[in-house]
Design brief:
The structure holds two protein chains of two kinds.
Chain A: H1 2-14, E1 26-27, H2 33-58, H3 69-72, H4 79-103, H5 106-127, E2 130-131, E3 146-147, H6 149-167, H7 184-202, H8 205-214, E4 225-228, H9 241-246, H10 258-266, H11 272-275, E5 276-277, E6 340-341, E7 377-381, H12 383-396, H13 400-420, H14 436-452, H15 456-471, H16 476-485, H17 510-513
Antiparallel strand pairs in A: 2-3, 4-7, 5-6
Helix pairs in contact in A: 2-4, 2-5, 2-16, 4-5, 5-6, 5-7, 6-7, 7-8, 12-13, 12-15, 13-14, 13-15, 14-15, 15-16
Chain B: H1 2-9, H2 11-20, E1 44-51, E2 62-65, E3 71-73, E4 79-84, E5 89-93, E6 100-103, E7 113-114, E8 125-129, E9 132-135, E10 143-147, H3 159-162, E11 170-174, E12 183-187, E13 200-203, E14 206-208, E15 236-242, H4 245-248, E16 259-264, E17 277-289, E18 302-303, E19 306-307, E20 337-339, H5 341-344, H6 352-356, E21 362-364, H7 370-374, E22 378-390, E23 396-408, E24 415-428, E25 433-448, H8 503-509, E26 510-528, E27 533-552, H9 561-564, E28 567-591, E29 596-621, E30 632-636, E31 638-639, E32 649-650, E33 653-670, E34 674-685, E35 692-702, H10 704-707, E36 717-731, E37 741-750, E38 756-762, E39 765-766, E40 774-787, E41 791-810, E42 819-841, E43 849-865, E44 872-878, E45 881-886, E46 893-895, E47 898-899, E48 908-909, E49 917-918, E50 928-931, E51 936-946, E52 949-959, E53 962-965, H11 966-973, E54 992-993, H12 1006-1015, E55 1024-1026, E56 1029-1040, E57 1053-1066, E58 1091-1092, E59 1099-1109
Parallel strand pairs in B: 1-7, 13-16, 39-42, 48-54, 53-58
Antiparallel strand pairs in B: 1-4, 2-3, 2-5, 5-6, 8-9, 10-15, 11-12, 13-14, 15-16, 17-22, 17-59, 18-19, 20-21, 22-23, 23-24, 24-25, 25-26, 26-27, 27-28, 28-29, 29-30, 29-33, 31-32, 33-34, 34-35, 35-36, 36-40, 37-38, 40-41, 41-42, 42-43, 43-51, 44-45, 45-46, 46-50, 47-49, 51-52, 52-56, 53-55, 56-57, ...
The chains are: A mainly alpha, B mainly beta.
């Protein structure tokens, strides 16, 4: 009997045929609006940081790994970022909107539309035509069509406008608001600044100036849109990912770009000690430093023929140790020698070493937790950048004095923001930080160079060089500017004389193009986005 | 009446037994237990001994006085005594042996004889499905049988691996040579690329789980044993492999990948009529590393001929003067020494005292062999004791077997232990009811250093890997000479940045272990209505509890702080299978003047599987060396180890799925020459809306040699069978495919105010409410026969199509999701399997006998339709390097970046003299860079015997098939093996200059040639090699002590055997010096094939075993 009872007990258990629901997971019915909203805010930052990296690598703010543009920007490298936008941001926004609409949470709705609008703008800037009207609707559109970039731009601006309208409506506050702590005035300024970026790209000066004249945009550093990282190493890791990469027990893992370090050394830029942390005072092959084929193989090779005479090659002075553009050599044991990210914006070490006075101001190798512990920022929209945009618009209409003063304002905002980061590194020796006087004279020097430059293109080069340096930390602005203007025309060339044409737009991600029959992968990197009216590659840009 | 009952009751048991009979362990068998009326004749008492062809006693032989009902059976020692009259004839019969007749003369008192096997195995009976047995000649599909002798006492202790090469159509892939590592058994190729392709294990009619619960994914760590490792090879009586769907329909959807049908000795103990038999076997084997690379000893570590503490071995020569000699290197002093790596390490600036202790120390510039010394000879010991018996009246039987295995791997820290205990019994309660049951307890304990994918520049994921940095150690380095521990316990090694974890540190500080307690068993009750109808119920359970520990002390080397902080991951997995089955069978329906014989089975079954995992992951070890969750700063159940925002560790999982099925089979036997079988099964599954499917099968076997009398002759064709079968099977989606989930992260971020932020997000997986079962169809044709009683052949052709394939496909992220489960497309697989046996020398008198068996397999597959809009689905590996399914291509193809081609297909070289790479082909897809499917596989098995001595040799040959071989590419790219000795000249790559269109003429150096244009190239194609391999799989030499010599001992038989496994191999199309063994898969037990990411060498085993029966 016991046996039979056992049989029936277990056989009933094995004949239950209604086990559809996953006991391991919640369903979309269990979502909470603010939890979705938090995810949207985090994804927005992740997306912009990763796009910023791509842009920075193309424009010598960061070092890309590959010998050709094609190698460095393979389709697969875009998979994660693309997925963050569509599977992360847009899909969650779609779900969160149903909750927010039901709850009449207009602030949530407004912020979501603004975030979605700017994400779309950046997607178009990098990829050209992208899915928009058919996106996030898998039942009806299993293979979304890529809408023309121009239409997406229009739709994005409309979304931002709708978002601003919604922010004016009553509704519960975000909990939390990681960007502006529920200051919706700042959100509106940020929204308008996003539109400024779009109008700058499309050359819509009237619309650009209209916003400038309204004054309702990010004009003050206090209104900067940025994401604040923390110093928690694990559970969760809240550090700036570039910091996490470089500040490890085994030394640095990424390279800084020689071009930006050299340009800043040349001008004695006061931001150097904040942007970069040197681990070593002498770069092999630099003036007064011995070569070291083991740690820096290029220190014993000659400058490639195609480089111009005043173009930096291999060894930057003063211990700045990085890589030339598109250098894909193997990795020598230089992890404790090469230059790493600094305290701005990555939350690393303030560089307080002094060549010649190493006893008191030694070079410090990286270690886990050093400096600001990674509690840096991802700059998204800064007041200083807007000044450079204004300068570019002014210069385009031959208003050189307006351009000079806008650039000066931008440099002032940038240098003072950067200098404020000394407090992020509690171990910083502030005595070696550039003084106010040094900063002023640097700015004056740049403005002077600009004013005394004899040609418009030379002025543009100076403006663009400073804009690029100001964008350090997020290369989206630099990447767009380079395709708008081709400046600076004296960017360091690629190491290989034939690196392929510049990335006029990125390949579609492998994961998308492989499975979306309505998106055909691009043949090459020559495809220009709709607002890029410059000559086709390779005639443009001049420095490649 | 009594006799009838007996036969019916034991009908299927006896049928099993027909083929169970084995030569070497005399106690295994028993025949039909006739109940015989003894007539006591007066004249004479005859006695004698009946031996088998190996001169072992043959118990259970029927000895009958011809024409009377007077008979007896031989006893355990083969002895019999019978009374008969002079002039009468004794008939000796035994299934599987030729019947002998001996006349009785006046002088006869002792009639002894050796019986010879019946060459014609027409009467062989096989258990084919759900406990149903059939004569082999009646089968309309291919079945391979593997006997006990080729399994037990094998140096290979993993049963699955023993099967390798034993029969056509079966492909066994080992993950690595580590003892206890996972395996994969694929029969007749892949039918699905997202579902499991592993064969179903059925032991004594009970489903047996063969899960592999890895330590992680294939990147971060995938060591872990497959649960078929729990099977005790000592308890195997035979294995039947059902390959085709016509054979497996009744097993339901899990039989779609073929069935490995195991009959255990204890499971068949009911057939024994002896009072008691005891068998002991003991074996000891050496387990050592297969073959290591032939390292060159001319050049040492460095790059571009200059010394440096690099991963690579492109440094100066170990000779002083001349081109490439060390005299020219500024870092090597005149005594031929370099600065000790610990005296110059930049990393050690953080350990100034430790560094200072090496100040000024020098390190000799000479070749060293630490890799060879790293491996050891492991000992594998196996002891097995079994006892079986049956009561005098034959109504009660029992079996017990206990086995213990203790095996050390060739890698330090690798050990596997396995203990099995099985008890079984059966009883006939009344004339109509019988019961039987069996219960097995297994404990398996695996310990190993961690194993993870490595790309030849250390691991790329979050785990440590014992082989990740070992094989390519530069020749000037002896890691035994370099201390591996810093004062705080952290790892230290030769690199300036300490970017490699010292292998000895890994051995000491990183461990992975599995402790499995498993119980499986069944109880069955049988009711026999009458001569025709029989009803049986069987209930079974298979439950295992697996405790896994994955741990590492703090101080390791990794890009991820979670790893370097020390981690401790413990989890328990409990998997339970309940299976119930009712079968009503009818047989012996004779029609049309007994020309037609009909039998049928009707059954219902329900199977419930529950998988449950619970565990904790901790990181941030506080006190070095102590593993307890309280000694870690963070404990959680979800962990993103590498910080990429994707959860890598999910310590909790619960999965439950039920399948209910009804099935039926009808068999028609026409005049002993045509056999038709029709069957079908309908299943219902618990995790889908469209949850049911019916799938039928039919097969026909025709025996022309029976039909046409003149066709067969003794010296010509003895037997011929033609068969054809149509089979189907189904497959259901796993998991919970119909619902879309919500991801929740309880610790997504900590904001500036210190608040922990919880997030919700939509799952990347889109639930498909319309998912339906897939249907697999197969047509199979075969021919079997025997010629001149020496040559046998069995050839099959099959063609299999999977319709409505269930696939986890990637979908465009622009849909808001990245994957879903759906039914798409069609895959076609076809192949030829052939087994040929030749008895080259034949002896019926215990003389020299030599049989050669050859089996041949050729498989091919083609993706016919991928459905949707997808051109290519990468289903295993990485999204940019892996196995993919593409229309018109085989399912086994490899995809990845290739060398760029011009329109004429020439390889393009850039101005620096390097190959250009491209990851997009003409159609905009990831290029195809190879096909893992071999052209064919052949196995040669030679069996020789002479008197009591036997020699068996098995050679395997796999011809063709490509492999992305990380180990080979790394050894070549880093300049370690003898293949790279010729390096002082310059090299020019074959190809065309991309800028000029002319043939490339750029001269490049060795490192650029081998490194930049080898494994370090973006073009994955350059790491793909031909994986053909010739292998001496098994050799065994044994001796059975003649029974005469054992007469005065308690032993029934004694056998001693020397054997070796994987003694030699040559992957003849790979670079010679790499000595790489391509039978490995870094993708673990999943569907990926043809990828190897420094998974480590294979093992070679040899030793001795002794088997004795009492």
């Amino acid at each position: 009997m016991v046996f039979l009872a056992g049989v029936f007990f277990t056989s009933c258990e094995t004949t239950d045929l209604d086990l559809l629901n996953d006991p391991n997971n919640l369903t979309t019915n269990d979502a909470e609006l603010d939890r979705l909203m938090s995810n949207i805010q985090l994804d927005f930052n992740t997306f912009l940081r990763q796009m910023g990296n791509n842009g920075a690598q193309a424009t010598r703010l960061q070092n890309p790994f590959g010998r050709t543009y094609r190698d460095a920007f393979e389709p697969v490298t875009m998979d994660g970022t693309w997925s963050t936008a569509y599977q992360g941001l847009f899909s969650n926004i779609q779900l969160a909107e149903t909750y927010a609409t039901a709850l009449e949470n207009n602030k949530h709705l407004g912020v979501m539309k603004i975030i979605k609008g700017y994400t779309l703008i950046v997607l178009v800037d990098f990829f050209g035509d992208v899915p928009f009207s058919e996106a996030t609707n898998p039942v009806e559109f299993p293979a979304p069509f890529a809408d023309p970039g121009q239409d997406v731009y229009q739709g994005a601006i409309a979304l931002i406008d709708e978002g601003v309208d919604l922010l004016n409506q009553p509704g519960a506050e975000l909990n939390p608001d990681m960007y502006y702590d529920n200051d919706y005035g700042k959100w509106k300024k940020a929204a308008n600044t996003m539109k400024l970026a779009a109008y700058l790209n499309t050359g819509n000066t009237a619309a650009f100036n209209a916003i400038i004249n309204s004054g309702n945009y990010i004009a003050s550093t206090a209104d900067d849109m940025q994401f604040q990282y923390g110093a928690n190493q694990t559970s969760p890791d809240t550090r700036h990912p570039s910091y996490s990469n470089d500040y490890t027990p085994n030394g640095a893992s990424s390279y800084r770009s020689n071009w930006i370090m050299d340009a800043m050394v040349d001008n004695n830029d006061p931001r150097l000690r904040y942007y970069f942390h040197r681990q070593n005072g002498c770069t092999p092959g630099a003036q007064g430093c011995a070569t070291d084929p083991g740690r820096l193989p290029c220190s014993v090779t000659v400058k490639p023929n195609h480089y111009t005479s005043d173009m930096i090659y291999c060894s930057v002075d003063k211990g700045y140790w990085g890589r030339d553009h598109l250098n894909a050599e193997g990795i020598p044991p230089d992890n404790f020698f090469r230059t790493v990210v600094g305290v701005y914006p990555h939350g690393g070490l303030f560089d307080d070493a002094v060549i010649g006075d190493e006893t008191n101001h030694p070079f410090e190798g990286v270690s886990s937790g050093a400096g600001g512990g990674g509690a840096g920022i991802n700059p998204i929209l800064l007041a200083s950048w807007v000044d450079f945009w204004k300068a570019e618009v002014a210069l385009a209409s031959n208003n050189t004095s307006g351009a000079a003063s806008a650039m000066q304002a931008g440099l002032q905002k940038s240098t003072s923001k950067v200098a404020s980061f000394i407090s992020v590194d509690p171990t910083a020796d502030a005595t070696v930080a550039p003084t106010g006087g040094q900063i002023s004279s640097f700015i004056a020097d740049i403005v002077n160079q600009f004013n005394s430059a004899t040609s418009m293109s030379k002025k543009m080069d100076i403006l663009a060089e400073q804009a690029f340096i100001t964008y350090y930390g997020n290369g989206i602005g630099a990447y767009n500017m380079y395709r708008r203007t081709g400046a600076p025309s004296d960017l360091q060339y690629s190491l290989d004389p034939n690196p392929g044409n510049f990335v006029r737009s990125f390949f579609y991600p492998a994961a998308e193009a492989n499975v979306n029959s309505n998106i055909q992968q691009k043949d090459d990197l020559n495809v220009q986005v709709f607002w890029d009216n410059n000559p086709a590659s390779p005639a443009f840009p001049p420095a490649n | 009446m009594y006799l009838t009952f007996y036969c019916d009751f034991w009908h299927w048991l006896i049928q099993i037994n027909y083929k169970m009979r084995t030569k070497f362990s005399g106690f295994l068998t028993l025949l039909l237990a006739f109940v015989v009326q003894l007539t006591f004749a007066q004249e004479k008492t005859i006695s004698g001994t009946v031996l088998d062809e190996g001169n072992l006693p043959l118990p259970g032989v029927n000895v009958i006085v011809k024409g009377t009902s007077n008979g007896t059976q031989t006893d355990f020692d083969g002895n019999y005594t019978i009374s008969a009259n002079v002039g009468q004839t004794l008939v000796f019969s035994y299934v599987g042996y030729k019947t002998e007749e001996k006349g009785i003369s006046a002088a006869s008192t002792n009639i002894s004889l050796s019986m010879q096997p019946e060459a014609d195995v027409l009467t062989e009976v096989l258990v084919v499905a759900q406990g149903i047995s059939k004569e082999k000649k009646a089968l309309g599909y291919a079945v391979s049988t593997i006997q006990e002798e080729s399994i037990k006492e094998s140096p290979q202790t993993d049963l699955t691996r023993v099967l390798s090469g034993k029969a056509a159509g079966i492909n066994i892939t080992s993950q690595t040579g580590l003892s206890g590592s996972a395996n994969q058994v694929v029969i007749r190729g892949l039918t699905s690329f997202t579902g499991s392709n592993n064969a179903l294990y059925i032991i004594d009619n009970v489903p047996y789980s063969n899960d592999t619960n890895n330590s992680g994914n294939f990147v971060d760590g995938n060591i872990g044993s497959s649960r078929s490792f729990d099977i005790d090879p000592n308890n195997i009586e035979n294995i039947q492999i059902l390959k085709g769907l016509a054979a497996t329909t009744l097993y339901g959807s899990e039989g779609r990948n073929g069935v490995i049908l195991i009959t255990t000795k204890t499971g068949s103990s009911k057939n024994l009529n002896r009072k008691q038999e005891v068998e002991v076997s003991s074996s000891t084997f050496i387990n050592e590393v297969g073959t290591l690379p032939d390292y060159q000893d001319i050049y040492g570590g460095g790059f571009d001929q200059a010394f440096g503490w690099f991963y690579s071995n492109w440094g100066p020569g170990f000779y002083k003067n001349g081109l490439g000699g060390w005299a020219n290197d500024p870092l090597i002093d005149e005594n031929g020494t370099v600065a000790h790596p610990y005296s110059t390490s930049a990393f050690l600036n953080a350990y100034p005292d430790f560094k200072a202790s090496y100040e000024g120390e020098r390190y000799e510039w000479r070749p060293r062999n630490s890799v060879e010394r790293f491996f050891k000879k492991g000992i594998s010991q196996n002891l097995s004791i079994s006892a079986r018996g049956r009561s005098e009246d034959g109504k009660l039987g029992y079996g017990v077997i206990a086995s213990h295995l203790d095996e050390d791997g060739f890698t330090p820290g690798n050990n596997v232990k396995r203990t099995n205990l099985t008890i079984s019994g059966d009883a006939r309660l009344t004339n109509k009811i019988g019961v039987r049951g069996s219960m097995t307890y297994t404990r398996t304990n695996l310990k190993t250093p961690p194993l993870a994918a490595s790309n030849g520049s250390s691991v790329f994921g979050g785990g440590s890997s014992i082989f990740g940095d070992l094989i390519y150690t530069p020749r000037n380095i002896d890691f035994f000479e370099l201390p591996f521990e810093l004062p705080d316990g952290a790892s230290i090694y030769y690199r300036d940045d300490n970017a490699i974890q010292h292998p000895l540190w890994t051995v000491k500080n990183a461990k992975y272990s599995e402790d499995i307690n498993r119980v499986n068993g069944f109880a069955a009750i049988n009711y026999n209505f009458n001569d025709y109808f029989n009803l049986e119920y069987q209930g079974s359970v298979d439950v295992y509890s697996q405790n896994n520990i994955n741990r590492q002390n703090k101080g390791g080397v990794s890009d991820f702080p979670v790893i370097t902080s020390g981690f401790y991951y413990t989890y328990n997995t409990t998997n339970t299978i309940y299976d119930h089955r009712f079968v009503l069978s009818g047989s012996n329906f004779e029609l049309l003047n007994d020309k037609m014989n009909i039998s049928f089975q009707l059954g219902a079954t329900s199977k419930g599987t529950t998988f449950e995992r619970k565990g904790v992951y901790s990181d941030g070890q506080i006190v070095y060396g102590f593993f307890d969750h309280s000694n870690f700063a963070n404990s959680t159940t979800l962990k993103d180890v590498d910080g990429d925002g994707i959860i890598d560790i999910d310590a909790q999982d619960f999965n439950r799925r039920n399948v209910v099925g009804v099935f039926g089979q009808l068999n028609v036997d026409w005049d002993n020459w045509a056999f038709l079988s029709v069957s079908g099964r309908q299943d219902w599954v618990s995790n889908a809306n469209e949850n049911t499917i019916f799938y039928p099968s039919a097969s026909l076997s025709v025996i022309p040699t029976t039909l046409f009398d003149g066709l067969s002759s003794d010296g010509g064709l003895n037997f011929l069978k033609l068969r054809a079968g149509y089979g189907t099977s189904a497959n259901f989606a796993i998991g919970y495919p119909t619902v879309t989930n919500l991801d929740s992260n309880p610790v997504a971020f900590i904001d500036a105010d210190g608040n922990t932020i919880v997030t919700n997000s939509t799952s990347s997986v889109y639930g498909n409410p319309g998912i339906k079962p897939e249907l697999i169809e197969e047509l199979e044709y075969g021919i079997e026969g025997r010629i001149a009683r020496r040559v046998s052949f069995d050839v099959s052709y099959f063609n299999r199509t999977t319709n409505d394939l269930i696939v986890n496909i990637p979908v465009p992220a622009s849909t808001g999701f990245t994957s879903t489960t759906t039914n798409i497309g069609e895959i076609n697989t076809w192949g030829i399997e052939a087994d040929l046996g030749v008895n080259i020398f034949k002896s019926d008198t215990n003389g020299f006998d030599w049989k050669l068996n050859v089996n041949f397999t050729k498989l091919d597959s083609e993706v016919k339709d991928l459905g949707l809009d997808t051109d290519l689905v990468i289903y295993a590996g990485f999204t940019n390097l892996g196995n993919g399914a593409k229309v018109g291509e085989p399912l086994t193809a490899l995809y990845g970046a290739r060398v760029q081609r011009d329109e004429n297909g020439n390889l393009l070289v850039d101005d620096a003299g390097d190959y250009l790479a491209e990851s997009v082909d003409e159609d905009g897809n990831l290029p195809k860079i190879g096909d893992a499917n071999p052209d064919f596989v052949m196995n040669y098995i030679s069996t020789m015997s002479w008197k009591g001595v036997f020699l068996n040799v098995q050679v395997n040959h796999t011809s063709g098939g490509d492999m992305y071989a990380g180990t080979v590419a790394t050894l070549m790219g880093r300049g370690l093996t003898t293949d790279t000795e010729n390096r002082l000249g310059t090299f020019i790559l074959d190809g065309v200059s991309a800028s000029t269109g002319e043939p490339n003429t750029v001269q490049i150096g060795n490192a650029q040639y081998y490194f930049d244009n080898g494994f370090a190239s973006e073009a994955d194609e350059l790491s793909v090699y031909d994986a053909s391999v010739l292998r001496l799989q098994e050799v065994s030499l044994g001796y059975s002590i003649p029974s005469k010599l054992l007469d005065r001992t308690p032993f029934g038989s004694v056998k001693i055997k020397f054997s070796g496994f994987n003694l030699w191999y040559d992957a003849y199309n790979m670079p010679d010096g790499t000595n790489f063994d391509p039978n490995t898969s870094s993708l673990g037990s999943g569907n990926g094939q043809g990828f190897e990411f420094l998974t480590g060498p294979s093992s070679k085993r040899y030793g001795v075993s002794i088997n004795a029966t009492f």
